[in-house]
Amino acid sequence: MGVQREPGQKGVNWSNIAVGGIMNMFEVTTLGQPLEVLKTQMAANRSQTMVQALRSVWARGGVTGFYQGLIPWAWIEASTKGAVLLFTASEIETATIGMGLSPAAAGLVGGMGGGIAQAYATMGFCTCMKTAEITRHKQAAAGIKPPSTWAVFADIYRREGIAGINKGVNAVALRQMTNWGSR
């Protein structure tokens, strides 16, 4: 990963944290969210082809259909997960180099730790909230008065607890760990 410090710098490099958040905001706003919505549509409707899924999402709101859940949840997730990743990876990398690990090994360990922290600190909760928002839009499109996003969240929490909010986060943590560790 190789997060850089200024010569003689001690402590956190806040510009790395800001860059991480900004980069992720740009990614999710351009193609990240439309592809995430398309993936969710296809996962929920396994018999649909990609063209059918594109048409279904388009029917729910045209271009804006592809941005369901972007504001605020995808932006919150994007800005925080990038910052968490770069902060954690940088701190782990610095600590492991100080323990005598080579820069390459420290980068691997830092990336892995950053990916895990990213998943557990931000992605589970935000994914739950984005899913709640998309569910609300589907209900509204079907003519059903949807509950608020927070009401959907509270219902999930009441029924399934913290495990329901973070459903699938262990798989996400493994994915993020291998993803960022390999970079």
Keywords:
single chain, 183 residues, mainly alpha, 6 helices, 76% helix, elongated
Layout of secondary structure:
Elements (H helix, E strand, L loop, with lengths): L13 H31 L5 H10 L10 H29 L4 H39 L7 H17 L3 H13 L2
Helix pairs in contact: 1-2, 1-3, 3-4, 4-5, 4-6
Helical content class: over 70%
Calculate the mean pLDDT score and round it. 87
Query: How much strand?
Result: under 5%
| Straight-line distance between termini | 6 Å
Overall body shape: elongated
The helix/strand series, from N terminus to C terminus, equals: HHHHHH
Could you characterize what this model shows?
With 183 residues, this protein is mainly α. It is built from six helices and no strands. It has helices at 14-44, 50-59, 70-98, 103-141, 149-165, 169-181. It starts with 13 loop residues before the first helix and ends with a helix. The mean pLDDT is 87.
